Every structure is written in structure tokens, then in C-alpha cells.
Amino acid sequence: MPHFACPADAVSRQCPNSQLDPLAIGNVCHSVRRMTVDSILLKVLRCGCRGFCGVGLQRLRGRLSGGVCHPVCTSSVVVLVRGEGAVMKGGRRQRAIGQAVVALMTVLMSMVVADAAAVVDVYRMIQYDLKGNPMGSRRAALNHHTVSGFDVQGADLSRAVVILPALKVNISSLDEFVQNKGLLGGLLLLLPQRSDETGGAEGDDSDEKVAKALAELEQWLVHNTFQYPVYFAYEDENLLKLLHEVAASDAAGRPASATNGGYKLVVSAPEAKKLTTPTITNIQGWLPGLRAEGDSLMLPTIAIVASYDTFGAAPALASGSDSNGSGVAMLLELARLFSRLYANPNTRGRYNLLFGLTSGSPYNYNGTSNWLRNFDQRLRESMEYALCLNSLGSSSDRMLLHVSKPPENAFIQQIFSEIESVAKDSDLTVELKHKKINISNSRVAWEHEQFSRQRITAVTLSHLEEPPELLQRTGGIADIRRSVNETVVLRNIKVVAESLARHIYGQQGKQVELFAAGSNLALNPSYVRSWLNLLGRTSRVAPFLGKNAPIINALHKELSQHTKDASLQHETLDSTFLFYDSTKAQLNVYQVASVTFDFIVALAVGSYLMLLFIVLFISTKGVKDFVGIFRKAPSRKYKST
Amino acid sequence: MTFFHFFNCAALTFGPHAIYYKATPLSEYDTLGTCIKAAIVYLVTTLVKLICQATFLQVSEHDDFDLGQELLKGLIGFLDVGGLYYALTQVSHRSISQDHKFQAVGLGWAFADALLHRLAPLWVGAKGLEFTWEHLLQGLESNANLVLTVSLAALGSLMWLRKNKPSALVPVIYTTAGVVAAMPSITNYLRKGLAWEFSNVVSFELLASLVMSFITWRLFCACQRPAQ
Fold first, then answer.
1. Which residues cross the membrane (chain A) (predicted)?
2. Which residue range is the domain that position A134 belongs to?
3. Strand, coil or helix: A230
């Protein structure tokens, strides 16, 4: 079945900055289809004529590149310009011919590619192997009719795509379907509309409910295996209309199929390939303290650590704002604040500060453990403690200090009391929570546990009460920018910064405020906000980032502005996780006619032509001749001898 | 089943031409040569028309309706009449009666038109997965076009070939021919100027083609009588 895809992906490739509505592209395609041979010839001729006059190209080019990026024209402008260069040397005539040919190509291309009624951006569900077990969605290509649910009468689910709004998914019944190894053509989950609102205000209850439902669904999805393609798309008017129509025809007992017609969804994606040796990248920066005269000992070091990467049911949508965009933004602001203090020898503390942005957090903090393994012995011995920041963005007036050493430990008590005394001023309660490390269990729930395994004192600050399970709270679809409250993040930065400063400058228990609002060491809310915004819209699933991802470079650049010796460390991801590519695709929505309809049309056309024949024949040649057609041609008779 | 749809549309678009040729005495008198000649004249006329349009018309940025431009386009469209005149009077036709001559010329003309304007969009569009009514409507439009072209050819043969026609009918013949020749411009106006739906335009064309062919038929009969 021949089919030409609409080059919406070509558009996004060629004009990455423009925010084109995919459905609008579909509409453009639709209108382009109306072009007839007449208009093609006209364009060619016009181009030729103007070429002789020498003004045509300019006009044509203006026309082609004018307006928004036209799906076809953008690609052909390149050809056009090249064509111009090639024929420059030739005479006018050649030039005109060259332009005419190019114009013909332009229009022909536009005719060939224009086909689908609508093109929608879809995000494929993650496909990965966990210890060799296949997980996630195992297929990418999709070409099936649409059905609005699992319980539609008369629908052949093995050859249908079920469209479900993600918020209305009944996980238990879906689970039953999956556990029974039910056959399905594909699954398209509609996520609630993406809002451009960048938070700041308190998220209301409905937001929280939505986030909770999505998180639950996501958890279930990433821990199951689907032998069919699963895609996510953001709800919009057109998709909802589509779903409504599909539901109506399903309710009427006419589910979409080859015999009934209906909507067909096509994703022509190649099968996903394994990502060979996925890398994870840690970023670190260093603020050296001031050594006293004649002091030969190395200064103690405090590490501030946040993991920046994410994991989610759809890798292209995992842009975790709370987990752990908030931690990263906090770390960057802390680095900025302390770099200002450390820039002046008078205020430089007697502690080295190490800032670490680690990757691989969803995979038992794999990146952190690699990072720590590469510490040299002197640094490891100088480490006083490490403070890990994790999920500190959502509105809550409780903060937990997760530790793995017994809470009675004097040093832990000291860290805790430092933070608590500052937190008290801003009506924040801090609690100490202890969780023992089970060395035999490979699961690492908190980042500080990797430090503790290396015998470095470490704590994690988080608003999460319980240690997350594997691949839980890793910044998936539900973790949107709106769920992070800027004022909370700023308050948390303040608390951490003040307590650190008191520790560094030996002011424990005293009421000093170093980072007071209005002073030249005040927090910069717009800086924090812009980082939260950037992180909240950048998916950061480590295996898909590669070594030179823009976000990694941006973080590196930012750290190197505030710290010394900012460096990147590329590591290979733990081989218990294997990932497959193809995270984004274009979904073509076609309205297809049924076979029955085609038969009826054929019948109608056939009878019309037949009638025409009879009428014309009788009116021009008479009934007699008409009857004559049906008589047997007189056969030659042989005389018997 | 998209190929099936393509086949249906193609049958609707090109079938009537073939049937017209087969069912009427055109096939018995071997007028295929005349048809082909008419088609070639159509091709040349179209080329001339396009060159004129390319030279005189402005490149419009949008698809909107501009009266001056459309009038010019309509004028250029009247080149069709010139082409038909040439096909009817100047091209030598091998011994066929005038009745068959205009039919053959009209048929060849309409078939070339359908081939040039509708085959490529059909091939590209009707084979796609997406279903639209557009191609079926285009097929119907092609039928209307056939009727109109044959009517125009008939009026042309009345104007230029028949000498002894009642003088009272002459202005009527010329007006009708003018209306039929202006039909593409009228439909264009409906489509762009009044922004009619494509289905409405097609039904208008079908209706207009029936009315015009009826008028032409009456005129033809009226001119036939004194000759007998």
C-alpha cells in the first residue's frame, strides 16, 4: 500500500526554532494537494519567462521562503539556490531552463509528499532491558485502525490501536489485559494538555491529583512489557475530536476496521536499535578554600551533590522538574553564591567546596558511584561530608535529612542541628530519617548511600519521606514544571546556604544572616527560575543524551563560570540496563474509507457508465441496433455434403 | 483498498469519454484521428494560454480573488475558443460529416483536458490512505466538462461551419457560446470569489452543463430544419 508521509519532521529539522503546530502542517499538506498539472506548468512557465527577464528567481524565492516554513518549499529553496549557482555561468537561456526544472521539482515534490490529514508529534514509550529482561514497549512501527477502548464490541484488538486518555486509564484492568498477554495492535495514551504556565504559584488540588495519577500509571508502565508500540501524545482539540468520533462509531457498533473504514494511525518508524555503550556524564566544579600560612594539611572538603538526569515512561518527556531539576537549580545557585564569597581572599573559607552534578541516578546512582571511585585518595580523605540535594521543589514545610549512619552519631547530629537551627527561622521543620544500608542488596535508594558505601559521611536533603523504589520518582511525565514552587526552592536554597556558611565560617548557633535579601549576596530568584524553566523542559534521560547534549554543555558552562576546574567525566552506564533508541515519531492520522464503501462506489460508477452507454447508444443508433449487440453474431454455417 | 478507490475515480473521470466514443456512431466512422488532432490542438492551445498567463498575470502571494487578474485570466481563457475554431475549421479532417466532426473534436478536446488536469492529482491523491470526496467530485466535474466542451464545439460548428442558419438565431448562438466559453471563469469565481464548497461548485457545474447542453441541442435542431 503506497503511502507518502508528510514531511513534518523535515520541517522540524529545518526550522528547529519555530514552534509549528503539527496539525497546521497537516493542513498545509492538505491544501497543497489541490495543485493541478495546470498550476505546475504555469509555475514552470512563469519561472522560465521571468528567467528570460531576469527577475523571476528573486520573486519565486521570496514566495517560497516567505511565510512560515512551508514543509516543502524550505527543502527546495536549497535546491533552488544551488540551481542558481550552477547555471550562473551559462547563458540566459540555460539559466531559465535550470530555474524551470527546479520549479518543476519543487511543485512535484509538494504533490508527492502531501497526503496525511493530520500529523501529530508522538513520544514513544521507553524500551529497555533490565538484567536481560525485555521491558517497556518492544515495537515502534504502527499502522492500524483506531478503537476507543479495550471493551469495544466486535473490534479486533490485535489489529487496532487503542486510544486512551492517560487520566482515565484503569490500571488494574489494563494490568489484567497485559498479564493475560492480550493481543493489541498498539496503544496511544493521551496526556493532559501541556500548559505553558511556568508555575511559581501553588499548584492546586487538581494538579496534584493529575500528577499522582500520572505517576502511578508511569510506574506501572515502566515495570511492564508490551509487545506492541505504545505512544504518548499531548491532548489537543483535534485529537480529542478524533477520539470523540472514534468513540461514537464504537458505541454505534461500527468499530474501525478494513470493512467499516474509520481512522487509521500510521507511524512509519524503523524498529528500535540497541544503544551501544550508553554514556553517562558527571559534571564537577571545585572551589578551593584558603589555606592558612604554614599549614601543610589539606583543607577539609564539603561536597554538594545533585543528580541531574531523569527516567520516565517516555524518554522524550522525562524532564523532571522536582526530581531533580530543583536540586540542580539549588546547586547552581549555591555555587554562584559561594563563588562570590570565595572570590575575595578575606571571605574565602577554610573549606574546599566540591560541586557535583551526577548522572545515572535512576540506575542505583550509577554515575555517583563511578564518580566516587575516581576520587583520588587525598580528596577522599579530606572529605568532611557530602550534602545531596534531591527533590526539594514541591510545596511542603517539611524537609527530611536522610542518613545511613545511626542518628546518634555526633557528626550527623551536628549537621542536623546546623540545618535545623536555620530552618527554624523560616518556619521549616527538618527531621532526621535513618535508613540502614544493606550491602548485599544492589538497590541504592538515596544518593548519599553511594558515599556511605565509600565510607564518606553523607546526607540527603529531600522532601520525600520514603526511599523511592527502583525507577520511582525519577522525573517522569508527571513531574512537570508546574509542580515546582519557586518560593519553596528559594527558601530551601537560603536554608542550605546559611547553614553551610555557618559551618564554614564557624558561626554555629549564632544568628548571622549572610545571604539576606537586599545585600549583595542575596539570592537571585530570576536565575533560579530560568534554570528551573530550562530543566523543566529538557528531557534528560542519560543514555539518550550522549556526550555532547546541549543541557550537559550548559550545566558545564555554568559550573565553570562559578567554580574552578569544572570538568566533565564520561562513564559507561552499568550494563544491567540496555536501552533502545527511537523516542520521538510523527503520527499520521488518516481517515480511510471502508471496502464496502469502495464497492458501493464501484457499483454506482459502473451502473452510471452502463446507463450512459445505453442512453447514448439508443439515442444515436436506435433501439434495434442496441438489441443487435446482444444477439449472437451469425455463425458461419457449413453445408453438409 | 486504496488502489480500488483510484480505479473508481479513474473510471468516473475517463470512462464517459470512452463510452461516448464507443456508444455513438463516432466509433463507426473511425473518427479517432480527428479526436487525436483535436487533443494536439488542445495541448498547443493550453501551452499558449499558460505562456500568456505567465507573462501577463501577477504572481499572487495568496489564493484570494482579484477581479482584475481574474478578468485577465478569463480573457486568456477565451483562447480556448480560438483553439476550437482552429480545430474545427483549419485542421483537415478526412471525410466525416459535420455532425460527427464537432463531436469528435469536442471529445478529443475534453479527453486531453481530463488527462492533463486530473490524471496526476488522481494518481497521487486517490492512492493515498486518506479518504476524501475530492477525487470523486473531480470525476463528476470531468463529466460536466465533457458535456460543456461538446456543447461549445457544437455551437462553434454552428457559428463557423453552417452557412444557412436562420438569422434570428445568430445572436442567441453567440450569446450561448459566450456563456459556455466563460464557464471556467464563472466556476473559478464561485470557488474563489464566493468561496463555495467544492461539492457545491461541482453540482453547479453539472447543472449548468445540463442546461447549456439542452439549449445547444435546441439551437442545433433549430438550425437543422431549414437545411432539410
1. 96-120, 599-618
2. 119-274+584-592
3. strand
Cα A217 to Cα A504: distance, rounded to the nearest angstrom: 44
A337 and A429 inside one domain? yes
Q: What is the pLDDT of residue A141?
A: 93
pLDDT at A68 over 70: no
Total beta-carbon pairs less than 8 A apart between chain A and chain B:
127
Q: Are residues A126 and A220 in the same domain?
A: yes
Asked if residue A293 and residue A150 are part of one domain, the reply reads no
* pLDDT at residue A63 in the model: 40
In terms of residue numbers, what domain contains B113?
2-227
- Asked whether this complex has an ipTM greater than 0.90, the answer is no
- Does the beta-carbon distance from A602 to B121 stay under 8 Å? no
pLDDT surpasses 60 at A317? yes
Which of B8, B21, B42, B127 should we substitute to test contact with A (largest number of A Cβ atoms within 10 Å)? B8
Q: What nine digits make up the cell of A467?
A: 526511599
Say if residue A99 is in the same domain as residue A213.
no
pLDDT of A294 higher than 80: no
pLDDT given for residue A97 in this prediction = 66
Give me A415's grid cell: 549537621
Max alpha carbon distance in chain B (Å)? 57
Comparing C-alpha atoms, which of A221, A127, A223, A212 is closest to residue A174?
A: A221
Interface of B with A (CB under 8 A): 1-2, 4-5, 7-8, 11-12, 15-16, 19-20, 22-25, 46-47, 50-51, 53-55, 59, 61, 116-121, 124-125, 127-132, 134, 136, 139
Q: What pLDDT, on a 0 to 100 scale, did the predictor assign at position B25?
A: 84
**In a shared domain, residues A248 and A178:** yes
- Looking at the domain assignment, is residue A640 inside a domain? no
Mean pLDDT of A415-433: 90
Angle between helix B134-160 and B2-23 (nearest 10): 20
Output the domain CATH number for residue A432. Answer: 3.40.630.10
pLDDT in tens, A163-218: 999 998 889 989 999 998 888 999 999 998 876 554 444 456 678 888 889 999 99
Q: Total structural domains in chain B? A: 1
Q: How many domains does chain A have?
A: 4
Same domain, A486 and A568: yes
What is chain A's alpha carbon radius of gyration, rounded to the nearest angstrom?
Answer: 33
